[in-house]
Amino acid sequence: MMSLNNTAKIASIFFSIVAAAAATNTNTADDETTVASAPSFLKRELKVDAVSSYSYSCYDGSISMSYATSAKTTKTKASKKTSSKAAKAESKAAKCERSECVDPAVGRFIVDGSKDIGDTLFHEGKPGETTRCGCDCYTLIDGGDDPPFDPICGDTQHFAYRKVTSTNFSIKSRTCGVKCYGQEGSSRLTFGRVGLEVRQGLHPLAANVFISHKPQMQAEWSWREEYRGDYFMGAHGSPDVECLWITLTRNGNRFTSTYAYDAYAGGVCESDDDTGVEEIVVDIDMTDTVYVGLAVSSEVFSGSDSSCEYTEADFESIEFVCEGKC
Fold first, then answer.
1. pTM of this prediction?
2. Is the pLDDT of residue 300 over 80?
3. Contact 58/36 with Cβ under 8 angstroms?
C-alpha cells in the first residue's frame, strides 16, 4: 500500500494488465529468472506534469525456462577481472577525503557486490559496471537494451548493493545522469532510471522499493510488495534536472522517500525548493535481511526518441545510517 500526502490534489490513473503464458513456473529460488512479454505500448516514454500511478499483474510460464538458462551464463572472465580491479580500488580508497555533504561521523557506504538483475541483452556483449568515483561515490553503467518486459515481469537493472540485517536505516545520495550512450546528432534519447533501492532478494521478481529519476526528464518510483506480486509505479514531471538528491528510509515495514534539488548557496548541499513531489510512503512486509543500494535501468533502445543504449550515472555523497548488522 502506498499513501501520498494531499492525495485529493493529485491526479492518479490506475489500470491493470495481465500477461499470460502457456505454463506456470512455481520455482521460487532466489537465483531463478522468469519473465513474460509486455504489451508494445508500454515501451513508450511519457513525461507527465502530475503524478500518475498504475499497477498490473503478470503470470510467467514456459518462456521463462530459456531465459533462466541464459541468465546463469553471464559470469565471464571479464567480470571476474572487473571484480579483482574493484577490490584493489577499494583498498586504495581506504584513506580518502570524505564528501563535505556527508556526516564524517557516519561510516562509508561500501558495496558488497553488484549484479545485472534480469539483464541478458547486454549492449555490445558487455555487462553492467560498478566503479568507485570517490570516497563516497560510485559510478554505475547498466547493461543497456533491457528486454521489452521491463519492468512488468521482472526488474531489469544494474544493482550495486550492500547486504544488511536491519529494519531501521536510511540511505541518501546525489544521483546524476552522466552520459546517455547513443545520443548523437539530432537524436533525442531518454536516460534510464537512476536511483536508490531496497530489495528483499536479487531475483528480478523480488519484493523491492526503487526511488529514482530519469535525468532531465522526471522523477519515478516503483515497488513490488511481495515475491511475484503486483508491480506499482508512479511519476512526476517537475524534477527534470540532471542531478537530484534522493533519500530512502526504512522504519520497520514502512519505507519513505524524498527528493531534493541542489542548493545554490555555497557550503549547502540540498535545496529547500519544492520539487513538486510529495513524500512517498510505501508499506511492505519485508524481511529484516535486505539488499540496499544503487540502481540504473535503461529501457529498450530502438533508435531516435527512444531510451539510451545504456546509461552512466554517478551516485555522489552517499550517506548510509543504519542500526543493526550493517
1. 0.73
2. no
3. yes
pLDDT at 225 over 50: yes
Is pLDDT at 102 greater than 60 in this prediction? yes
Query: CB-based contacts of 221: which residues, under 8 Å, 6+ apart?
Result: 195, 209, 210, 211, 212, 233, 234, 235, 257, 280
Question: For the segment 150-202, what is each residue's pLDDT rounded down to a tens digit?
Answer: 445 688 899 999 999 999 999 999 999 999 888 776 568 889 999 999 999 99
H-helix or E-strand spanning residue 242: none
Contact by Cβ (8 Å): 318, 96: no
10 Å Cβ neighbour count for 98? 15
Work out the number of other CB atoms within 10 angstroms of the CB of residue 10. Answer: 15
State the number of CA atoms in the 13 A half-sphere of 46 facing the CB.
13
Query: In whole angstroms, how far apart are CA 59 and each of 71, 150, 152, 154, 229?
Result: 19, 14, 10, 11, 10
CA 192 to chain centre: 9
**Does the pLDDT at position 34 exceed 70?**
no
Distance CA 240, CA 217 (A): 4
Check: CB of residue 244 under 8 Å from CB of residue 261: yes
Cβ contact 101:245 at 8 Å: no
